[in-house]
Amino acid sequence: MSRRRLLVRSAAVLSVLFGGLGTGVAHATAGTALYVDDDATGCSDTGPGSQAEPFCQIQPAADSAGPGDTVHVARNTTRYAPVTIGSAGTSDAPVTFVSAPGDNPAATATVRVLAGTSTPAMTFSGARYVDVSGFSLSSSGPSTLVFSLSQHISYDKGSVNTAQAATGTGGTIAVDGSSSGIALTRLQITPQSGGPAFASASGAQDITLADDTTSFGGGISATGTTGIHLAGDTIVTTCGNGVSLTDGTSGSVENTVVRPDTTASCSDTGTPAAITVDTASAPQVTADYNAVNPLSTGTDYDWAGTAYGTSRAFLTGTGQGAHDLDQTDVTLSTQTTPLIDSADADAPGELATDLHGAQRVDDPLVADTGTGAGDYDRGATEVQDPLGLGIAGRSSEDVYVGVPVTFTAGFVNPWSDSLDGYRYTFDFGDGTTTLSTTGSVAHTYTQPTTSTKIYATVTVYRPDGTTMGTEVSTYLAVRPLPALTGRLDCRSASIQIAPSLPDTAGCAFTAAGFGGYPITSDLITFGDGSTAVSVTGSKGVVRHTYAAAGTYTVTQRLTDSGGRTATATTLTTVGPSYVATGPSRVLDTRNGTGAAKRQVGPGGVVRLKVLGVGGVPASGTTAVTLNITDTGATASSYVTVYPDGTSRPTASDLDFAAGRTNPNLVTVRVGAGGYVDLYNAHGHVDLVADVQGYFTTRAASSDDRMSNLAPVTPTRVLDTRNGTGAAKGEVASGSTTTVTLPKAGQGSGTVGAVLDVTVTGGTASGVVTVYCGSRPSTSNLNYRAGQTVSNLVVTQVCTGGKIRLYNSGGHVHLIADLQGLYTNSVTDGTSPWGSPFVPTDPTRFLDTRDGTGAPAGRLGANSTLTVKVAGVDGVPADATAVLVNLTGVTPTTATHLTAYGAGTLPNASNTNLPPGETRPVLAVIPLDTNGSLHIHNAAGSLDIVADLEGYIA
After folding, report:
1. Residues 6 or more apart whose Cβ sits within 8 Å of residue 722
2. Which helix (DSSP H) or strand (DSSP E) does residue 950 occupy?
3. Are 837 and 695 in contact (CB under 8 A)?
4. Is the pLDDT of residue 748 over 80?
5. What is the CB neighbour count within 10 angstroms for residue 869?
6. Which of 362, 435, 576, 839 has the smallest C-beta neighbourhood within 10 Å, fewest atoms?
7. What residues contact 283, with CB distance under 8 A and at least 6 apart?
8. So what's the pLDDT on residue 18?
9. Residue 108: CB atoms within 10 Å
10. What is the pLDDT of residue 694?
11. How many CA atoms lie within 13 A of 511 on its CB side?
C-alpha cells in the first residue's frame, strides 16, 4: 500500500456538508467584537462589553450580539450562568460565540457554563445563524443544551453533561420540532441522567451529529425528524440502545461505533438493539460502515420490526450495512485494527478532522478497506501517527573518561516516518551541549562523576521549529578508564601439573581492560627462550614443558586497540618427578660391587655408575638419592658426592672419624655417562651406597609411582622412649616396628616419606632398615652400643600410610621425625600437592667457622641461628623449602640440632652429636615467609655447616 500523509478536506466539501445541509457555518462578514470575562476587574453586565470593560456573564453579550458579531468568552476556572441565545445572524454574517484566553491555563480548557437547577445551561430560542465553539455545558436538569424555534445553528468542540441526579427522559441535547439546520460536531456528551444523549422531536429537520462521543447513559434518538445524519460518532450506552430513529425519520448512519458500557448495569429486561429503525423510517434511512457491539442480551439491529443478530444477516435481510462490523461481547476501540482506515470518507456530515481536531491520516500498517476521498477511521477518533519520543540511548552502558560514547535520540516510530529536517539539542549532563541534525552525537567526558550520577538529555525539534519534547537517558556514571591488566598464576592448586608431566608448568592467565578497546595481542613467554604463545579470551590456562629444571620468569604482554600495553610476570618452578625404589646396593668397595674391591685412599675418587643400575632407568634420570656409608676408616675424613665430569665442590656430604661406621643420605645430580663421583679426603676407607630413588624427566601418560615433594613441619611420629607411635620401651633385637603416618600421609597418593630416624641407648651395635613391603638386605642407619645417631631416610609408604623399621642389634630406642611426603595427588585427590624439586650442585651457604652466611662464631646452648636462603645462591625468592646437608662440628657437649621454618621450635631433631664429633645429616627444611630457615642448638656450643643440594618452590 502506498504511504499517504495527512489529508485535509477541501473547502468545497465543507460547504456541501454544512452549507448544503442548512447549517450556520457560512462566510462571515466582519462585525463587532464583544467580550465576556467574569474574572476581570471592572466587568459589568450593563457595560459596553469591550475588551477593557467586558460583560461579566454571557447573557448580556448574547442579547447584544447582531449579525457578524463575535462574542469572546474567557476560559476561566469559574463557571458562567446559564444563557438563552436568541441572536439572529445571517448566512453571510452569523453570530459567533468562541472561547478566549482566561485564567484557566489548561491546554484543553473550555468555557464552562453551569446550570445548578433543572434549567438548561444553554438554550437557543428563536436563534438564527449562530456558531458556538469551545463551550462545556453542565446542568442538574434532564436537558443541558436545548434548541427551540432555531435554525442554522452549529455547536462545535466542547462537552455537554447532565448530572446523575437529574432523572428524566429528555435528551441531554434536545431539539424541538420547530428547529432545523442544527450541526453538533466534536462534542463529548455525557447523559448521566439516564436519558438519551440526543433527542429530536417530530418536525425537526437537517440535523448533523458528526464525530461526537456519548457515554454513561442513552444514545441518539430522533422522532419524525427529516434529514438526520450521524457520521463518525462513538456511542457508548448503558443498555446498548445506541441509535433510535422512529416515526418516519429520514437520514443516514455511517462510520458510527455503537457499544455498551460494560462497567454499568442495565435495568432494561428487553432485547436492546445497537441500531433501531422502525418500519416508518426504514425506507428513508441508509446505514453502512458502522461497527456495532450490543450487550450479550441484545442484538445488532432492530430494522423495520425485525431483529438481526449479525451484520451479515442484516445485509441479507435489508440490503443495508454491506460494510458493517459486528463483534459480539468484544469492546471496540479506535485502536482496534478493523476500525482503522475502514470508513466512508464521503459519508453525509463527516468532518475532515476528528473529535480532537486531528486530521485524517492513513495508517501504513493497516490495509485500506474504506471508501471515498481519504482514509477515515470509524468512530469519533482518528488514530494518529504514533511517532513519539523514546529514551535517549547511548552506545555503551558503561561510560569512561576519554572514551567517546554516542548518544542517540530515541523514537517510537512504528510508521517509519522520515525524520528529515528534525533538529536536536544534546545536553550531556557535564555542562556541555551540542546541536545536531542527525539525531546522533558522540561525546567524550573529560572528568569522572562524583558519587552523584548524571544523565544526558536530547531535545527534539520538528522541521517547522516546534519542540517535540525532551528525552532523558538512563542515569550514568562516568568512570575512570579501566586499566589494561593481566595476571599470571603458576602456583595455585587448581592448575597444579601431575607428577607424570615432569618439568612442566601450568599457568592460569587473566586479561582485562576496556571493552571499547579490544585486546589485540596477549602473548606469554616462559623465560627459557622458547617462542611466545598467543592466547585469547579473558582467562585460560597454558602449559609449557621446559628443557631443564629450574625457576623461570613467565611474562604476559598485552596490547589493546587503543595502543595501551601491560605486562604481568610471575615465577614458576619445574623439576623432575621422584620415583621411590626399594633400597638397592649399587656400591660396596669391600666386595667390589660397583667399583674395585679395595679401600679408597686419600684424595681417591670412586666413579660410580648409577644409570641403568639398581632399578634406575638408563635414560631420563637427572638425579639419584643414595644412602652413603663409610666403614673401616683409617683416619678422620669426609666424602663429597658430585656429578661426574664436573668440578668437585667444597661441600662435604659425609664426615667421619677413624674406625667408625656412619651413614648419610645424599641427593646428587647424575653426571656424564650416567656416573657420580665419591671423593675421600683423608686416609683409607670403604664406601657403601644404596640407591633409594631417582628423579626423572620422562613424561608418562599415567604413573602413580611418580611424585613431587610436599614438605611438612617437622613432626615426631615415633618415639619409643615415651610411647609415641609405638609401644613404650626399647625395641628388641631382630624386631620390626610399624609406624602409621599422620592422616596427610595415609592416602593412596602418598608414594614416599622423608624421615629423620634416630637410635639411642642401644645395648649392642646394629643397623636399622626402614622399608615398605619385603625387608631389603640394605640398611639406613648404623649404630654402636650406647651411641645416639641420626640419618635422613626416604622410604616407600605402604597402604594406609604405614612404614616399618627393622632393628638388627641389641635393644634400642627408635625415634622418627617426618620431614616431608612424596605424593601424587592425582591418584586419590586427597594427598597434599607436592612441588617440584630442583637438584643443584652442592653449594656451601653456611659455615660459622669462617663467617659464610652468618657471623663467624660457635652457636651456643639453646640458641637459634636464622639464615636467609631464598634469593641466595640460586634459590628463587619464592622457594618454600630447601634440601640441605646439615653438619654439626665438634660440640662441647652432647647435643642435637633442629632445623625448621616458620612457627615455634618443633619437638623434633635432625642430628644428634656426641662431644667433639662432626656429623652431617641431610634435611628437608621448610622456609618461613621471609625465605629463612632456623637452626636450633640444644646444648653446649658448636659450629654449623650447611650445604645446599636443592630447593622446592
Report:
1. 728
2. strand 943-952
3. yes
4. yes
5. 25
6. 435
7. none
8. 37
9. 8
10. 95
11. 27
